[in-house]
Amino acid sequence: MQLHPVKVYPSKALLPREQQLAWKIAGVAVDPVPVEDDVAEMIVNRVIDNAAVAIAAINRRPVVSARQMALGHPREGGATIFGVEAGRRFSPEWAAWANGTAVRELDMHDTFLAADYSHPGDNIPPVLAVAQSMGKSGAELIRGLATAYEIHIDLVRAICLHEHKVDHIAHLCPAAAAGIGTLLGLDQATIYQAVQQAVHVSITTRQSRKGEISSWKAFAPAHAGKLAVEAVDRAMRGEGAPSPIYEGEDSVIAWILSGRTKADRDGRPSVYEPVYYQVPLPEPGEPKRAILASYTKEHSAEYQSQALIDLAFRMREKIRDFEAIERIVIHTSHHTHYVIGTGANDPQKMDPKASRETLDHSIMYIFAVALQDGRWHHVDSYTPERAGRADTVRLWHKIETREDPEWTRRYHSHDPNEKAFGARVEIFLSDGSRLEDEMAVANAHPLGARPFGREDYIRKFRTLTEGLIAPAEAERFLEAAQELRRLKPGELHRLNLALPPGALREGRPGIF
C-alpha cells in the first residue's frame, strides 16, 4: 500500500489531476491486477449475506416503498429487484435503490470501522444492478466489487466524516462509482470524472443517524448507490465534474472536512492548515484485498453492539436475579459512547416507544434485552411489546456508558490483532457485589471465538429467509452464488431471489 497525502490547494496552484485523490482512485480502478482466490470467495460470502438480510426485510415498510418506486421504472434487459421474479427487469439505478434499501434496512450486513464507519456491502446492489443491465459475467462482477470494497475501505481508513457530522455515504458513493468503472472496463479519465461527481452529490449530514432515527437510515446508502450509477452514466457520456473534488479551494476538504482553520471559516484571511489526510491505496499491480479486513454481523444491530451482545450472553449466566441489578456501567470507546451510548445525549435512546432504527442504535436497550433474553432476533428483539416490557425498561434505564481512553485507542489501532470494538462491563448488584467482564471483538469477527465462514453465511441465509422464499428457490440461489466466478455474461439474474406469487406487500401510492 502507498500513502497519498491529500490537502487543500488554492485555485491558483492549478493542481495537476495526476496529483489528485480522485485520479489516483481511478488509477486503482483501471489496474488489471487479478482478483485473488480468497478475495473472490469472500465476495461470494457477502453476496449471500446481502441477499439474506434483504429478503428478511423484504416486506418492511421502507423496503416496500423503495420497491414500489423502482417498479415504476421497467427496462427490457435491465436489473432484477429482490422479491420480484427475475423475468421482470428494471432501470439499474432504481434497482440499486430498491435492493440497497432492502440490504440496509435490518442493519445486519457487513461493516468496517476505522477513522470512520462503513458498510461496504452497500456497494453490491449498485455494481450488481449495472452488471446485470450491461450483460456482464460473474468474473467481471467480482472485479468490480473488489475495487468498490478496496476504495471504500481505504477512504474509511483515512478520512473521518463523523467528526464533521457528515454521513458515511460520502465514502460509499465514490467507491461504488469506481467499482462500476472497473466492471465496465472504463478508462481512467472517465472514472476520475465519475468519482468526482459521486463525491460532490453524496455529502449529507449525520442527522440521519441522530435523535429520532427514521427510515432514511436504510434509504441513505441506497440513495448513494443510485447516485453512483447516475454519475458513471454522465461521465460515460463525456460530462465533467467539480474538480479537484477533494483538494479544491471551495471543495469537500476545504469547507466540509478538516482543510481550513476556524479563522478561515469566519472570513478572516485564508489560512490553510498544514494537515494532510494520508489515504492508503494499492500500488500498481498490488492485489485489492481490503474486503478481507471487513466483517459481517451475526446480530441485527449496529456493529459496535455486536461484541456487547455476545458479552451480555456470557454475563447473564452469572446473574440469578435481574431485579437485584442496581446499575450497569459500560466502559468503551469514544465512538460507541457518543454514537450509540449515553454520550450521544439522545433521550430517544432511552424511550421504549422509539423506532426500531433508534433502538438498534441504543446500546443501553440492546445490552438490557440481550442480558435478559440470552438471544437476539432481528424481529422479536425490537417489537414494541419487547421494548415496552416494564422490567426491561427498568434495567435499560440503569445502564450508562463511559468513554475509556484505552478502548478508544484500541478502536483506532492500525494493528488488526489489537483493534477492538468491544467494552468492559461492570454490573453492580444490590448486595454490594460486582460482576465484571470484557470482550474486544464479537464472536463472528475474524479474530473472534467463532469467525464466520461459508457455512455460517449459508446458515444465516437459511435462518433469515426461512418461510419467505420456497426451499427450491433458496437452493437455486445458493448454487448460483457459489458459482459466481463461472457465471457467463447475461447469467447474473440468477443472483436474484423471488418470493412466491402474492407474497410481496404493496405500499402507499406516490409519484412513480
UniProtKB/TrEMBL annotation:
Superkingdom to which the source organism belongs: Bacteria
Q: Which InterPro entries match?
A: MmgE/PrpD_sf, MmgE/PrpD_sf_1, MmgE/PrpD_sf_2, MmgE_PrpD, MmgE_PrpD_C, MmgE_PrpD_N
Q: Where is the MmgE/PrpD N-terminal domain?
A: 19-261
Describe the location of the MmgE/PrpD C-terminal domain by residue ranges.
299-484
Q: Which PANTHER family match?
A: 2-METHYLCITRATE DEHYDRATASE (PTHR16943:SF8), 2-METHYLCITRATE DEHYDRATASE-RELATED (PTHR16943)
Give the similarity note.
Answer: Belongs to the PrpD family.
Q: Which protein are we looking at?
A: MmgE/PrpD family protein
